[in-house]
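C-alpha cells as discussed.
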C-alpha cells in the first residue's frame, strides 16, 4: 500500500489538483456520473478528507475550500473506502508488477511496487474519465460505444483539465509523469532532463509545459541476464533543487512558450530500500497554505513548513532536510533515494 499512499500524499498537497476536484464535486451530481467516472468520484471523496469548506453562498462557485491542519503524530493515509473505490474503478491500478530479479545466483519472480508507474496509470484513467464527463455534459444524449470513445480519446486528449494541469507535450506525445534517466554523467535533475532528450531517437522539445511537472527518477533499471529480463535499483544521489529551471535548449521555439520556465519543488516521494522489490515509500510535502507567499520568489531560502508522511506517522520537517544528501558513514550509497518529484510552475 505504501507506494500508492506516498504518491497520493503528493497529490493531495498539489493545490490546483485538490481545488479542481473539490469544485468538480460541487458541480457533478453523484447519481448522474458515478457510473461514468467512478475514479473521479473516489478522488473527490479522498481530497475532501484533507480540506474543509469555507463560505456559505448557495452558488458553489462563490464558496471555497481550505486545508485542514496536518495532525502531527497521527496516521496520514487514505481511508479504506477510498482504496475500495479506487480498486473497483481500476483493479489493475492496485496490483504490483511481477518482475524477474536476481537472488544470489538465481533469477526469481517477485512483485515491483512503483509509485511512478502508479501515478502514470492513475492520471491516464482520470484523463479518460474527464473526457467522458465532458462529452456527457456537452451532449446528455450522446452515448458512443466504448471502442469509438477510446479512438476519440486517443486522437485528442488535450481538452481535459488533467492534461492542462499535468501534461508535458513532447513531439506530440503527452506525458503526465516524465520518467527521466540517471547515469554516471548526471549530478542533478536538470542533467537528467537533458539526458532524457538525448536518448530520444530524433530531436525533440517541450511543446507544452504543465502547471505541475511530475518527474519520476528512473531508478529501477531493466536489463537482461541469460536472455531473461531482470531489474536493479540505481542508488546514485541526484541533487534536488528547490527551483528547477527548464534548460532553454529543451523548449521548442515554434510554440508560444517563455524562453525561461522555473518550477518550485513542493513534494518528494522517497523509496527506501536496495532493490525494486524491497523497501518502503514515504513522502515529504510543503504545507499548501504557506506556499502562496513563496510562489513568485525564486532564489530565497526555503522557509516553508514541511512535513513527512508515511503509513503510520506524520512529523514536522525542516526544509533543509529535504535537500540534504544523506550521510553515508560506511562509504556505501544510501538506500533512501528521491523517487518522484512534484514541481509547480512559478509565474513569470
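Sequence:
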Amino acid at each position: 500500500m505504501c507506494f500508492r499512499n506516498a504518491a497520493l500524499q503528493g497529490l493531495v498537497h498539489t493545490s490546483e489538483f485538490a481545488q479542481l476536484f473539490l469544485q468538480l464535486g460541487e458541480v457533478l451530481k453523484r447519481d448522474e456520473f458515478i457510473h461514468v467516472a467512478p475514479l473521479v468520484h473516489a478522488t473527490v471523496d479522498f481530497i475532501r478528507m484533507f480540506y474543509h469548506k469555507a463560505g456559505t453562498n448557495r452558488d458553489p462557485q462563490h464558496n471555497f475550500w481550505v486545508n485542514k491542519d496536518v495532525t502531527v503524530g497521527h496516521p496520514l493515509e487514505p481511508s479504506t473506502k477510498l482504496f475500495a473505490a479506487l480498486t473497483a474503478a481500476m483493479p489493475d491500478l492496485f496490483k504490483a508488477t511481477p518482475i524477474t530479479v536476481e537472488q544470489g545466483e538465481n533469477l526469481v519472480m517477485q512483485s515491483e511496487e512503483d509509485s511512478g508507474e502508479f501515478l502514470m496509470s492513475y492520471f491516464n484513467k482520470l484523463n479518460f474519465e474527464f473526457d467522458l464527463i465532458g462529452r456527457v455534459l456537452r451532449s446528455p444524449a450522446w452515448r458512443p460505444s466504448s471502442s469509438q470513445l477510446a479512438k476519440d480519446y486517443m486522437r485528442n486528449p488535450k481538452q481535459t483539465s488533467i492534461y492542462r494541469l499535468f501534461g508535458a507535450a513532447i513531439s506530440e506525445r503527452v506525458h503526465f509523469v516524465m520518467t527521466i534517466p540517471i547515469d554516471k554523467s548526471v549530478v542533478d535533475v536538470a542533467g537528467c532532463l537533458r539526458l532524457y532528450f538525448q536518448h530520444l531517437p530524433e530531436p525533440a522539445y517541450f511543446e507544452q509545459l504543465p502547471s505541475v511537472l511530475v518527474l519520476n527518477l528512473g531508478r529501477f533499471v531493466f536489463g537482461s541476464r541469460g536472455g531473461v529480463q531482470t531489474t536493479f535499483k540505481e542508488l546514485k544521489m541526484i541533487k534536488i533543487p528547490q527551483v528547477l529551471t527548464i534548460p532553454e535548449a529543451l523548449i521548442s521555439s515554434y510554440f508560444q512558450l517563455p524562453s525561461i520556465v522555473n518550477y518550485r519543488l513542493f513534494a518528494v516521494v522517497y523509496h527506501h530500500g536496495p532493490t525494486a522489490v524491497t523497501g518502503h515509500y514515504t513522502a515529504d510535502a510543503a504545507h499548501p497554505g504557506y506556499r502562496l507567499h513563496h510562489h513568485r520568489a525564486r532564489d530565497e531560502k526555503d522557509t516553508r513548513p514541511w512535513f513527512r508522511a508515511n503509513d503510520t506517522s506524520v512529523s514536522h520537517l525542516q526544509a533543509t532536510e529535504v535537500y540534504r544528501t544523506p550521510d553515508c558513514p560506511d562509504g556505501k550509497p544510501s538506500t533512501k533515494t528521491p523517487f518522484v518529484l512534484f514541481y509547480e510552475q512559478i509565474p513569470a
